[in-house]
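Many introductory courses stop at the sequence. We go one step further.
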Amino acid sequence: MRGFVNIVLFFLISLFNCSIYAQDKSEHRLFFEGLGNAGFGSLNYEKRLVKLDCPKSEFVFRTGLSGFPGDVNTGTTLVLPNSFNFLYGNAHKLELGFGQTLSVRLKGALFIRTVFNLGYRFQKPDKHVFYRLTYTPLMSNIWDIQFQHWGGFSIGYQFLKE
């Protein structure tokens, strides 16, 4: 237990001892996520909120859109995944995050799921294309708490400034 506390303290001290970048080559990203936070797939936009110099890390916000047809009783469902993520690393990144996924049935039902992200991202700073592989467990919390193991994969495009 003592070792874990020391690691957490070292990590926190490292974070607060770093300079913050306001601009960098990539602040905006688009990606398609298969499976993942939205269920079967989604188109997502990601924006960097803060980039830290040391350790090489950043905080990002991601929002997306998905949908799928239902039957006559339920109608079409729109799915809106939103999350805050922490990325750590240079080209090979650890991704940690949490958020909410809203599912709205056009015939009147609403579902909210809490989502967590634990993943790997390959994203070179000077290349447009990046890849993600994530473990994204879902937790339903409207009527009762239900936990579902889930995962996803992504391919994306980052807009680089010259």
